[in-house]
Amino acid sequence: MKVLLVFAHPERHSLNGALRDVAVAELEARGHEVRVSDLYAEGWKASVDRADFPEMAEDERLRVAGASGRAFTAGALTEDVKAEQEKLLWADTLILQFPLWWYSMPAILKGWVDRVYAFGFAYGVGERSDTHWGDRFGEGTLAGKRAMLIVTVGGWATHYAPRGVNGPIEDILFPINHGVLYYPGYTVLPPFVAYRVDRMDEGGFRQVADQLRERMRSIETTEPIPYRMQNGGDYQVPSLELRPELGDPGASGFALHVDRMRVGLIQL
User: Fold this and answer.
1) Which residue range or ranges hold the Flavodoxin-like fold domain (predicted)?
2) Each residue of 197-242: pLDDT tens digit?
């Protein structure tokens, strides 16, 4: 298996960096080929601006989606973006690794998504009609590939439990799992989350490292999060609202988009 790990932490000699080494070593020990995109070390440009579309006329108004689509079709995206797109096409599995900052990913990783997920590559693909609203949410360029998150969190696990003050970790990570990974077609695995990392001692690290090794050993067989496919019949077109007879009675929000009937023994 070919794995791309996109690493977004500014300090290589951090607990996050140590977990990256654990993940890469275990994957390679299992015979997988691994590439790492270290965004901070590589000085990744995070913001989208006119410099991303060098063939634009100086007096042209920047409309990012349109400019992105034209540049992608013409092969005129910047070289750093094209290199990351090639890695995504090469990889069977994508891992995004980052610390949870202000309930989301670091800005540099969001900027990686903004720039690499070009129109025509990760979105704006497929037929769009009265019965088919494009190839997305289970379909798309990256369909057939797996993806998962490795996330470090400063707070306790109970703080991110269903009744925790921060809200369930599944809800916090939903925009990334469902919106960034599932949208362009990835099959999304449950995330690996390490808690209380700011207070972790050597014994705690060994325990978390062992758990991460186990996740890397089972990465090819782990049951994915059973998100509903947009074009699989669960959603009404063109409103794209879940059919009224589906979902748990009284349920709302993110949970509606997980098909609980397909949940096996996995821990979401």
Assistant:
1) 1-214
2) 888 888 888 999 999 999 999 999 999 999 999 998 899 888 898 9
What is the pTM assigned to this prediction?
A: 0.92
Structural domains in the chain, sorted by start: 2-222 (3.40.50.360)
Amino acid 185: pLDDT: 95
